[in-house]
Amino acid sequence: MDKSFDPKAIEARWYPVWEQSGYFAPSGSGEPYCIQLPPPNVTGTLHMGHAFQQTVMDLLIRYQRMSGKNTLWQCGTDHAGIATQKIVENQLAAQGQSKHDLGREAFIAKVWEWKEESGSTITRQMRRLGSSCDWTRERFTMDEGLSAAVRRVFVQWYRDGLLYRGKRLVHWDPVLGTAVSDLEVENVDKDGSLWSIRYPGADGGEGVVVATTRPETMLGDVAVAVHPDDERYQHLIGTQLQLPLTGRLIPVIADDYVDKEFGTGCVKITPAHDFNDYQMGQRHQIAPINIFTLDAKVNENGPVVYQGMDRFVARKQIVADLEQLGLLVEIKPHKLSLPISQRSEAVIEPMLTDQWFLDLTRDELPDGRPGGKRAITDPALAAVTEGHIEFVPENWKTTYVQWLANIQDWCVSRQLWWGHRIPAWFDEAGNIFVGEDEADARAHGTTAPVGALRQDEDVLDTWFSSALWPFSTLGWPGEAADARAGVGTGPGTQTRLRADLQAGRHPPGQRRPGSSPPLPGPGLPGFHPKPTGKPTSCSSHPRCW
Questions:
Q1: What's the burial of 368, exposed, middle or buried (CB within 10 Å: 0-12/13-18/19+)?
Q2: Could you tell me the pLDDT band of residue 99, with boundaries at 50, 70 and 90?
Q3: What is the DSSP secondary-structure string of 181-206?
Q4: How far apart are CA 170 and CA 497, in angstroms?
Q5: CA-CA distances (angstroms) from residue 515 to 269, 486, 521?
Q6: Using alpha carbons only, what angle is made at residue 191 by residues 243 and 345, rounded to the nearest 5 degrees?
Q7: pTM (predicted TM-score)
Q8: CA triple 328-332-336, angle to 5 deg
Q9: 172 CB contacts (<8 Å, ≥6 apart)?
Q10: Where are the alpha helices (DSSP H) in 297-357?
């Protein structure tokens, strides 16, 4: 016998015995108790936040197992579309290549190679932690069964009128070339400037002075807004102004959104590159003018002299040109809150692009069917306010309710190659056909296809598939024994998910048809802080990137 206890040697010997003996599998009897492991991203290795979270879950699952419950700790990994693609693109860049050099199929094959390397590292780490998951049920969010669930939900929501394709303003990462979630955007305080610019009257009169932190976007201005009660400008409402450097005339409009006390009380309106301006443009039915390419250079809608310039290069030139024309009134220091992409560290550009959206805000569709608010958002809210779902700790209930109260339609499409490709096809006339495969799409089309069909190039937001994790891992939409038995979906289930999955990224109301709420008792463990005090996450952990 060894003179001292060596936990490393003991654990290495006994863990394989426990796993191979099936001790981590459901017993088949007793009250169901399931923990759905929030799947770690295959972007590298686990960090301290994972270790903390999995320790808590392991304690819970072992206690309930010893208490005689029919326990399942469902494990697996997430494909993490944008983060994983970025890693492989960086690897190619180090070799002097790009994804376009390989082509889509070869690039995806490269990502699968990375997934096998990273995923196996993660599972080794989890076993080393002693996590008592049922490894026979290990899943990956792009396994065929899980992919089938993704296609089923997308098609069903589309046919229910809840998924639509449209041109709307999104957070755009000009380096990665894709729309990103608002949760992948970090607002960073920076020292900047506030430029005051004179917009002369159409008749050459004095006009007005507007203050802006983004003079480059003036090329896409469609109006200047003032508060309707601002006596300084009431006489100008409905008149026209000259838009400097462009040769265009734009109207002066009145809107309650304008803060009379900020700057000069006059606001330039650029609906194609500002979320608040977009809403104002919609209210006043003014068409937006997009002035940037997808890599944030001035496009053909800008004056020829600026076309092809990077947005920040154009800013300097525009300011210099305004000064030369005598239209630059003042420059003042100003604290800015810059939207920065967590993935590329680029400054996010609000951009009008064609995307797929899940409706979460309409009560009723034009044809009388329930809209997303009535079909998805309201039931998700009622499940909590009526006590069907209880949060642990309870303060997360407030976060969840506030999130739903202010929710916007969810942009579910991403301009990536790695991920669940959107099951939609276009004919040569631009008509859309949606189905679980091309044959299904053709069969359910409202018109006969014009020419050949081509599949949408975009993929789905990673959280579209992650949100289905509690169901797809247990066999839905098939008739898996676990789903019939209620493991993971029954009213007695205690499912633990991180705060960002349950209260920030989970599509509201997503549940297996005919079941009770999928997460009746979500427990939300805290985050493991870094030395800076910020939570550890895959986007901040160097090995995850």
A1: exposed
A2: very high
A3: -GGGEEEEEEEEEEEEEEE-BTTSS-
A4: 27
A5: 47, 9, 15
A6: 90
A7: 0.88
A8: 115
A9: 178, 179, 180, 294, 348, 349, 350, 351, 353
A10: 311-324
Structure tokens at 34: 């399931």
Residue 91: the pLDDT is: 95
Look at residue 349 and give its three-state secondary structure: strand
**Which residue in this structure is represented by tokens 């048809």?**
513
Residue with tokens 């008739």, as numbered in its chain = 479
> Half-sphere exposure of residue 495, counting CA atoms within 13 Å on the CB side?
24
- DSSP annotation string for 123-190: HHHHHHHT----GGG-EETTSHHHHHHHHHHHHHHHHTT-EEEEEEEEEEETTTTEEE-GGGEEEEEE
Strands 454-455 and 424-426: antiparallel
Judge contact between 452 and 427, C-beta under 8 A: yes
* Angle between helical axes of 81-94 and 104-129 (0-180°, round to 10): 110
Q: Which pair of structure tokens corresponds to residue 24? A: 């981590």
How many C-beta neighbours within 10 Å does residue 209 have?
Answer: 17
Cβ-based neighbours of 93, under 8 Å, separated by 6 or more: none
First-to-final CA distance of the chain? 45
Which amino acid is present at 367? D
The mean per-residue pLDDT over the stretch 101-126 comes to: 95
Helices (H), 325-428: 372, 378-385, 396-405
Give the separation between CA 193 and CA 8, rounded to whole angstroms.
58
Handedness of CA 213, 299, 318, 204 (dihedral sign): negative
Report d(CA 407, CA 511) in Å as an integer: 18
Burial call 297-325: b when 16+ CB within 10 Å, e when fewer: bbbeebbeebbebbbeebbebbbebbeee
The yes-or-no verdict on residue 507 having pLDDT over 50 is no
Contacts of 212 (CB under 8 A, 6+ apart): 194, 195, 197, 218, 268
φ/ψ (deg, to 5) at 195: -95, 130
Phi-psi bin for 100: left (phi > 0), alpha (psi -120 to 50), beta?
Answer: alpha
